[in-house]
From TrEMBL:
Residues in Aldehyde dehydrogenase domain copies: 27-474
Pfam family, any one: Aldedh
Gene3D superfamilies in UniProt: Aldehyde Dehydrogenase, Chain A, domain 1, Aldehyde Dehydrogenase, Chain A, domain 2
One function term, GO molecular function aspect: oxidoreductase activity, acting on the aldehyde or oxo group of donors, NAD or NADP as acceptor
Tree of life domain: Eukaryota
Organism, scientific name: Ganoderma sinense ZZ0214-1
Family per similarity comment: Belongs to the aldehyde dehydrogenase family.
Protein name as catalogued: Aldehyde dehydrogenase domain-containing protein
Entry annotation: catalytic residues: E251
Keyword Transcription: no
Keyword Disulfide bond attached: no
InterPro entries: Ald_DH/histidinol_DH, Ald_DH_C, Ald_DH_CS_GLU, Ald_DH_N, Aldehyde_DH_dom, LUC3-like
Length: 483
């Protein structure tokens, strides 16, 4: 090991197979979404390399799973400390390949390396019961699956890799990370760095497109899949994984509502709503996607959001004055252009449509846009936009707004805003979402589950509940003698 002595964070991106860097005959260009320029070339994994990676993980599994929880925690903590020493270099990478603004970059980094020791402290406790009359000791214990895979999304490639690998390895599994096709560089370097801590084969990484993802999901020797991405892709993975009865966790799309009552400080709540709807360019599964505002304060909140939007620069993320950068890839940009065109073709009122600072004209930029009270059946309301185009919706009846908020195939996150705590809790209890937040947005932590209902996902990431998904339950019964 020790391949990280002269690690370069700007060149020489490779797979990591059996603890060693590996390249491939075919190379893929990686584009900076701010400029449209190629910033790196990465190897595209072959079928043979996938087989080599799985075989190495198979070899590493017995020894790694035999280590104690504390030994695996120690290795993870050492890895977190090492990765944290390169935080500035990781920040530059994710800003270049992801177009991520400084604030969002800080959020991703702060919820990545510093959280590794927090995740690593989680434990799955055995339950022991004794029947003395029968001479029987029964133990309910948690056993690792073996070779597992994580398929990571482009919007938080570093944070999601850390989240998945920490619990996977802590539980005793060996993990193969399949990095996102359009934003692989930070995750590739993360796993390269890890080889100075973990034995060969324990943590590997491969680059490839959707065809590689399909081969990973279908492979009979990969026992578990953790996927973050779109709902449509998640459904396809669930179908493919069913053939091998794999364990899966799917963290998928969202169309998160915010319900705003009249008894709030308009300026304060508008600030929270604006960050929640446009942070990371709106490219967050738990971002606020629909804002329901009570009719008594609708105009005031709308106008305050417009003020905030006018002051938010869309441009080069390395510019210190930039609020959000580009969309990460042209496919997402095209989707958002289509949604905006649909709003205009239907003559929906646009409260604000901003401009972008894109002098070269090659970046994947979308202006911050606020749509003023479109109908509930509008595409911008029904679909997950995953960008900085946000609809504002007027309401006056409590039961009606709860029904409208719940009327979505998605069920990821939701927020309710009010100073009347009895009322806000009453409303929040009726929301059918995996996460419900009152008077704040996205209070994520290592102790809170990241989970969705309905089409927003299957299973749990983060917290001790997320750790439990990386192990199967075994009933271990020992009778002292043969009667």
């Amino acid at each position: 090991m020790g391949i990280t002595k002269d690690i370069s964070f700007t060149t020489n991106f490779t797979h990591i197979i059996d603890g060693k860097p590996a390249t491939s005959p075919t190379m893929a260009p990686i584009v900076n979404p701010t400029t449209g320029e190629v910033i790196a070339h990465v190897p595209v994994a072959t079928n043979e390399q996938l087989e080599e990676t799985i075989a190495a993980a198979d070899r590493a599994f017995p020894a790694w799973s035999a280590k104690t929880w504390d030994q695996r925690e120690d290795a993870l903590v050492a890895f977190g400390a090492l990765a944290g020493q390169h935080a500035d270099q990781f920040a530059e990478l994710i800003m270049r390949e992801g177009g991520k603004d400084r604030m969002s970059t800080g959020f991703e980094l702060s919820s990545a390396f510093p959280w590794i020791p927090k995740y690593a402290k989680h434990r799955l406790q055995e339950e022991v019961s004794t029947d003395e009359a029968l001479g029987r000791v029964s133990t309910i214990r948690y056993r690792p699956y073996g070779v597992c895979a994580a398929i990571v999304a482009f919007n938080f490639p570093l944070g999601l890799s850390v989240l998945k690998l920490t619990h996977a390895l802590l539980a005793g599994n060996c993990l193969i990370i399949k990095v996102p096709p359009t934003a692989p560089c930070a995750a590739l370097k993360l796993v390269e760095l890890a080889q100075s801590v973990f034995p060969p084969g324990v943590l590997s990484v491969l680059y490839g497109g959707n065809d590689l993802g399909q081969r990973v999901v279908q492979h009979p020797r990969i026992m578990r899949i953790s996927f973050t991405g779109s709902t449509n892709a998640g459904k396809a993975i669930m179908r493919e994984a069913a053939a091998e009865l794999k364990s899966i966790t799917l963290e998928l799309g969202g169309n998160d509502p915010a319900i705003v009552f009249p008894d709030v400080d308009v300026k304060k709540v508008a600030q929270h709503l604006f960050i929640g709807a446009t942070g990371n360019g709106g490219q967050a599964c738990f971002g606020i996607k629909r804002i329901f505002i009570h009719e008594d304060i609708y105009d005031a909140v709308r106008d305050e959001l417009v003020v905030l939007a006018k002051g938010a620069k869309v441009g080069d993320p390395f510019d210190k004055d930039t609020f959000i950068g580009p969309m990460q890839n042209p496919t997402l940009q095209d989707k958002l252009k289509g949604l905006l065109a649909d709003c205009k073709s239907k003559n929906y009122k646009i409260a604000f449509e901003g401009t972008v600072s894109d002098e070269g004209g090659k970046g994947y930029f979308i202006p911050i846009t606020i749509v003023d009270n479109p109908p509930d059946d509008a595409r911008i309301v029904r679909e997950e936009q995953f960008g900085p185009i946000v609809p504002l919706l007027k309401w006056k009846d409590e039961e009606d707004v709860v029904a409208r908020a719940n009327n979505s195939e998605y069920g990821f996150g939701s927020t309710v805003w009010d100073s009347d705590m009895e009322r806000v809790r009453r409303i929040a209890e009726k929301l059918y979402f995996g996460m419900v937040w009152i008077n704040e947005w996205a209070p994520v932590s290592a102790e809170l589950p990241l989970t969705g209902a309905k089409h927003s996902g299957v299973g749990v990431e983060s917290s001790k509940h997320g750790l439990a998904s990386w192990a199967y339950i075994q009933a271990f019964v020992c009778k002292q003698s043969i009667d």
